[in-house]
Design a protein that fits this description.
alpha+beta, single chain, Alpha-Beta Plaits, 4 helices, six-stranded antiparallel beta sheet, about 170 residues
Length: about 170
């Protein structure tokens, strides 16, 4: 379904399997090509410690800012299709390793909660691998029900997060 107006959507990207750097950069290209969307900007790539089981490789993370006419549900389906193209499986352990993870972090000024999607993304204010790249993309972003990124991010410990050279 299409909206008649553009919505700002912020997408978190992450990978720690099968050449994570290439997985994330290729996903950014795919986001740029999404129908009824335009890639407004994106962050640097960051290396981060795994959030789940510690015996997995480090992650490569980034954030993309899309302008979209897609409703949140349709956007989620398109993102999951990109994940599937990258070999994403959902049968593994929670927060386990993955080829590609694409999350809708913020969708306009909306607060949405369904079985398939919660926006803003739960835990957004605690995740350094989201807040640091998000600040790079739009430090003045107001996350509905959470606050402004440039005020939240300094309260989030970097926890080994490393901004990668271009």
């Amino acid at each position: 379904m299409r909206n008649h107006y553009l919505i700002d959507a912020y997408i978190g990207l992450g990978s720690n399997l099968q050449n994570p750097h290439a997985q994330v950069t290729h996903a950014l290209v795919q986001l740029k090509q999404l129908e009824n969307c335009s890639l407004h900007s994106f962050s640097s790539l960051y290396s981060s410690r795994p959030m789940g089981p510690p015996d997995q490789p480090a992650y490569i993370n980034a954030v993309a800012w899309l302008k979209t006419r897609l409703d949140a549900s349709t956007l989620l389906k398109k993102l999951q299709s990109i994940e599937n193209e990258h070999g994403r499986t959902r049968l593994g352990e929670h927060w386990g390793p993955r080829t590609l993870d694409l999350d809708i972090l913020v969708y306009g000024n909306y607060k949405l909660k369904s079985q398939a999607l919660s926006v803003p993304h739960p835990g957004i204010k605690y995740r350094e691998f989201v807040l640091y790249p998000l600040r790079e993309v739009n430090k003045n972003l107001m996350i509905p029900g959470v606050g402004v990124v440039h005020r939240i991010q300094p309260r989030c410990y970097p926890n080994g997060l490393i901004r990668l050279p271009i």
